[in-house]
Queue: 2 jobs
Job 1
Amino acid sequence: MNVYAPQSASSKRALWAHIKDLKASRGVIWIILGDFNQVRSVEEKRNCVFDPVSVADFSSFIYEVNLAEYLMNGSKFTRWLDGGNKMSKLDRMLVCDKFWGLWPTVTLRTLPRNLSGHCPLVFITTSTDFGSIPFKFFNAWLSKPGLDTAVRSTVTSFNFYGPHDVSLAEKLRCIKKVVKEWNNKTKKEENVSLSTSAEVIKKLDLLCEIRDLSEAEKSDYMEYKNNINMINDSRVNELQQKSQVRFGDRRG
């Protein structure tokens, strides 16, 4: 179904209701695309009036009709006005769960708009672009300090206005960013700790050649040795999980 939605909120509600009735009366695979004249979140507009009531109406329609929206690549917005000062994402593609199940990797790509106010959209069913590298979480991280605090702080401070599915995706994106930053920081701290521990053990080994170590020095030796073993064991566990993710667990 090709859609060119009206401007007024009441007319759009009537259109959503009409599409809902049509879909309920016809058990076929549905693809609904075109200019819906409606955004789903404040992030889909720039320098334009934002109507939260219309957003809620549109989101409720998508949820009640059991539709899903594919990822759009190319550009963030599809409609330009006032010489590019006003932008919004009005054009999109919605599909039923049957279509999604048959073609889960479909994407919608925008093309250069040239002199038009709208970007042309291309429907791509061939997976030539695999997108971003998937985010992987490793069990070994759970034993390291700071991760729980970083994630809890991000979830507690998260604030987003928009549809529930968009909100969840944005929350996960924020958590992913924080976990990556924490992991990079932790690796740097571990490298410094390994270097320091190895240097202390080297000095204590040299002392062992000329005299017996004191109790305090023996305690330091064991402490730094255990620190190296703990960090190395954690990294080995992480490497084992990475290998299973990449190549599969072949032990069975």
Job 2
Amino acid sequence: MPAIISHDTGTDAAESLVYTSQPPVYTYTTSLISYALPPSQFVTPETPQVAVGAFIFTPPGTSPPKVLLLRRAATDSYPNLWEVPGGGADPEDTTLLDAVAREALEESGLVAATIVEFLGTVEFGTSRGNWCIKYNFLVDVEEGEVTTNPAEHSDGRWFDLEEVRTLAVTTELMRESLVKAFERVEELRRSRGISDPVS
């Protein structure tokens, strides 16, 4: 059994659901059941494009906590700027949660073990002129090597909160989402008796 990078919310294991796709196999808590629907269910006239973001942190007990960010390729939009793994939901994605697991795997090489919780949405205009809504999730992954597709990302690294505050990220919305995610991870770790102070 692979080691799991885990941020248990304290939900009883009996309340967890298992979703199987090819690949990967992952679990999610019943609090996320409303996101276990086809991505098309989240499309609106105002936001015709749906995307997802996977916020992946180092294991509890590592201090300070760090988040995985990927550096966009120099030839892509937002060149050389940092972002979380994620992207547009595909028509082939069975559910929005499946899109999260797929994007995490495709962009970072890491396999989702548990989609822990919903972190909120952001709305923005894309470089192609579309209006998009992005659903962000905290994701625990199996232990593994970060690998990126050079056509999309030139690097993948782990950053702590202080680094994130000044890092060249794609947008200020991305930075705000990252800071909020750090705060939520700290809450989860405190609830489990693990102290990783967030500055």
